[in-house]
Write a structure and sequence with these properties.
By secondary structure, this protein is of the alpha/beta class. The chain has a single domain, classed as TIM Barrel (Alpha-Beta Barrel). The chain contains 12 helices and 8 strands. The protein has an 8-stranded parallel barrel, surrounded by 4 helices. Helix 4 links the parallel strand 3 and strand 4. Helix 1 runs parallel beside helix 12 and helix 5 packs across helix 6. The longest helix is centred in the C-terminal third of the chain and has 19 residues. The radius of gyration is 18 Å and the shape is globular. The N and C termini lie far apart (38 Å).
Length: 288
């Protein structure tokens, strides 16, 4: 591994380098010291690479694909053809978890739980976790709602993705997290919200996030929150996910270095013991 800004086992999430092409993304993430990469399905499509070629690129940069993202109505009765591409990447490249959200309003819990469980079953055939992400502007808006879906689905490979921007903008608390099994948390995404929210939360979420430890997380607030999460038994992979027009304007290596340095600074201040990619896999079912 090259000497970069990162001294922890961190993953560079898909949107942190969203404007970089695949060669730039791989080189920048590697140079900053990230050990994992996140991608959106659209990133792979735009690269023009076959899955085997993507795997070679990752291996040449000492990177592993932690997470793949794609938004579609996974609770619909008819399966989306995009799943064929997702599972092809799982079979050839391999990735730890599929991050999903739900932008389509469905009837109450049973429909979402049934759809989530079925998706988990398809993912389990590839050894993939499914991480449900709550967002204030989606059909699964809060940590409690995500936990209700995961609990009702009852799949060992189903869990929750914790994104600190969504945490802040849904006013989640450590007490809320204490009601959720730590084994359900598949990964923690570091980023921060502005001190003052914008009127349009979608606009803010997609364009104006702050680096970890900045904004609402200044003066050690993010580090204290992460330390409290660790105190509840949270031991999972950590990523840095930045949606930032300001960072987008920088060359990819500068963006990657800034993200890695900020993430590592928060983890060091929190006294975080970094989890491995395999963390929680054996204990998830026992915790239900």
């Amino acid at each position: 591994m090259t000497t970069g800004a990162c001294t922890y086992a961190l993953t560079c999430s898909a949107s942190t380098l969203r404007n970089a092409d695949m060669p730039q993304r791989l080189t920048a993430a590697y140079g900053a010291g990230f050990t994992g990469l996140g991608l959106r399905l659209v990133d792979h499509r735009a690269s023009g690479l076959a899955p085997a070629e993507l795997l070679t690129g990752l291996q040449n940069h000492d990177l592993r694909l932690l997470e793949l993202e794609h938004s579609w109505d996974w609770a619909a009765p008819t399966r989306d053809a995009a799943e064929d591409e997702i599972w092809a990447l799982a079979d050839t490249v391999g990735f730890r978890q599929l991050n999903v959200s739900m932008f389509v309003e469905h009837p109450p819990l049973p429909a979402l739980a049934d759809g989530f469980g079925a998706l988990c079953d398809r993912a389990a055939k590839r050894g993939v976790l499914v991480a449900l992400e709550f967002m204030p502007f989606t059909a699964v808006r809060t940590l409690a709602e995500a936990a209700a879906v995961v609990r009702a689905a009852g799949r060992d490979n189903g869990g929750i993705l914790l994104d600190l921007w969504h945490w802040r903008r849904t006013s989640a608390t450590v007490e809320d997290l204490a009601a959720v099994s730590p084994h359900w948390i598949t990964a923690l995404q570091l980023c921060e919200a502005r001190v003052t929210a914008l009127p349009d939360l979608r606009e803010e979420a997609r364009h104006h996030r702050e680096l970890p430890g900045r904004g609402m997380g200044a003066s050690g607030a993010t580090a204290s929150l992460v330390a409290a999460m660790a105190g509840l038994g949270l031991t999972c992979p950590v990523t840095v996910e930045m949606f930032s027009d300001e960072l987008d304007a920088l060359p990819p290596p500068e963006t990657a270095n800034a993200a890695a340095a900020a993430g590592a600074e928060v983890l060091a201040a929190a006294g975080w013991a970094a989890g491995t990619w395999e963390t929680n896999l054996e204990t998830r079912g026992a915790a239900r």
